[in-house]
Amino acid sequence: MNNAFFKVPTPINEPVLNYGPGSPEKAALKKALAEGRSKVIDVPMYIGSELVHTDKKIKLSPPHDHQHVLGYASEGDASHVHQAIEAALAARESWANLSWEHRASIFLKAADLLAGPYRAKINAATMLGQSKNAYQAEIDSACEFIDFLRFNAYFMQQIYTGQPESVRGLWNRVEYRPLEGFVFALTPFNFTAIAGNLPACVAMMGNVTVWKPAYPQIYSANVIMEVLREAGLPDGVINLIYVDGPVAGDIIFKHPDFAGIHFTGSTKVFQTIWQTIGENISKYKTYPRIVGETGGKDFVIAHESADVKALVTGLVRGAFEYQGQKCSAASRAYIPSNLWSAVKEQLLADLKEIKMGGTEDFSNFVNAVIDERAFDKIAGYIDNAKKSDKVSLVAGGNYDKSKGYFIEPTVFLTTDPHYTTMCEEIFGPVLTIYVYEPQDFEKTLELVDSTSPYALTGAIFSQDRYAIDLGMRKLVNSAGNFYINDKPTGAVVGQQPFGGARASGTNDKAGSILNLYRWVQPRTIKETFVSPTDYKYPFLGEE
Ligand SMILES: NC(=O)c1ccc[n+]([C@@H]2O[C@H](COP(=O)([O-])OP(=O)(O)OC[C@H]3O[C@@H](n4cnc5c(N)ncnc54)[C@H](O)[C@@H]3O)[C@@H](O)[C@H]2O)c1
Ligand SMILES: N[C@@H](CCC=O)C(=O)O
């Protein structure tokens, strides 16, 4: 029984630890990495109260050392999808009726577990399983995930306090019920925080979920489940299954209790899902909520007044951190000819210093791409570009998959602003540059806007306020997250709500109050204190 309006602690972004030489966090992380390396773990699916093991195994290996085995996960089939839906629906009533502060407490406790005793473990799992260096793992699986949990608890409270006006004689109220049914959380490989947040924020709002992660993220997904269970999440609220996407989709998207999808992944997959939901629309009890954040072809445009060092730093970090496998990664840049030679010189100097290798060696800035399929696809783009007479190689261009899926940070220069690598999402460490004449700045802004179907992130570098203003107006629909004099990556929860428009998604801004509104089904209640007892208007009966 809740007899008070409780106040969720005001969230503050989790500080990013620096893992400097001799620091306790570095020692703890090295220990967790060694532990992870030394074991071969058996990863179950989590369905209701059961830890489900099957005979069909998925091998889990570090992308930077694919011969090494970290563990095996049990792969499920259609029967496990049915079981997960049933477990979710069985848990629904108790979970939906639990007072919201208990739900908040569970997820706030999970945040504290991640910030403290599980920090090294979740970061090590992300470093080993997804090949993120220590800094990239820290900003993702520790800080961003912790922020998602704490900020969302705070936003949930804000939603619940939102109430309508009432006039004399009556009391209007709105209650924010969870959705009627279960929600499918379908998550990508590249961010542990996103994978955890997609089911967690939905569950926080009182919903039950079936969660299917991308296979390369299973190793860290298992740690997320460990944390949530230790935080007290009841069985059946989040059911984690490892099943082929289309197999899961075929059952889930035909189920009458399917109430919504929380998706992050590629545009193509999201469009297929939306279409399937449309085809099945008459089967559902309620119109499903469709929330999806998808791909990008993120740009950097420099004005002739740009600061070259700031611009090149934005390009290097924006394009090559986590091997360009961020939906926000800078992958096309528009540089004015007056700056090109200085930009090129600085870019080559920076890239020469960058080391590539496994994540256990903390001096490596670049690690491996996620798997062989991604490696082959990215290598294909590089090979084709090398053959094109519209493209010249500025830096990198080599790759090797003998030990790990390593691709050098690669920079191309093109004379064709519509060349493939200026338009398509590559999702790897490949940046293509187009050099324009400074007097064509406005025309180039139009080119930036019209070149790709995406509108996720973009950045303008300029010291000229009129140029910045023009860029903001011309690119008003080109990016959901727009950066001025900064790289287009690295959004922070509570500071730069993240998401894109056009083909980049529904722009529901993960980790913001806007996103949480999608997971409630409001009920408006009007209570009249003294009910009328006569149907007639006062003037009835008179001429
Ligand atoms: N906008 C954002 O916030 C954001 C964030 C992270 C990643 N992304 C995007 O995600 C993509 C990279 O992640 P990914 O490779 O894991 O994406 P993906 O689309 O290949 O996979 C996403 C999820 O969908 C599943 N899936 C794939 N095909 C399916 C199908 N036919 N039916 C049902 N499920 C299916 C996958 O198994 C995975 O769990 C990139 O396009 C990137 O831009 C976007
Ligand atoms: N939110 C992350 C990108 C997530 C997509 O992969 C960023 O802002 O860089």
Describe the structure.
With 543 residues, the chain is α/β, with parallel strands linked by helices. 39% of the residues lie in helices and 20% in strands. It has 16 helices and 23 strands. It has helices at residues 24-38, 78-97, 100-115, 119-130, 134-161, 192-204, 218-230, 245-252, 267-279, 308-320, 337-353, 372-387, 420-423, 441-451, 465-474, 513-517, and strands at 41-43, 45-47, 50-52, 57-60, 71-74, 170-178, 182-186, 208-212, 238-240, 258-264, 289-293, 298-302, 330-336, 391-395, 399-400, 406-407, 410-414, 430-436, 454-455, 457-461, 481-484, 501-502, 520-528. Helix 3 runs antiparallel to helix 5 (134-161), helix 5 packs parallel to helix 6 (192-204) and helix 10 (308-320) packs across helix 11. The mean pLDDT is 98. It binds nicotinamide-adenine-dinucleotide and 5-oxo-L-norvaline (A1AUG). 5-oxo-L-norvaline (A1AUG) is lined by residues 190-191, 326-328, 489-491, 498.
Please provide the count of β strands.
23
Bound molecules: nicotinamide-adenine-dinucleotide, 5-oxo-L-norvaline
Coarse shape: globular
Q: Low-confidence stretches at least 5 residues in length (pLDDT < 50)?
A: none
- Kindly report how far apart the N and C termini lie: 56 Å
Mean pLDDT: 98
Give the strand order of the largest sheet, numbering strands 1, 2, ... along the chain: 14-17-18-13-12-20-21
**Derived structural class:** alpha/beta
Determine the fraction of residues in helical runs and give it as a percent range: 25-40%
Largest sheet composition: 7 strands, mixed
Give the DSSP E fraction (strand runs of 2 or more residues): 15-25%
How many helices?
Answer: 16
Radius of gyration: 25 Å
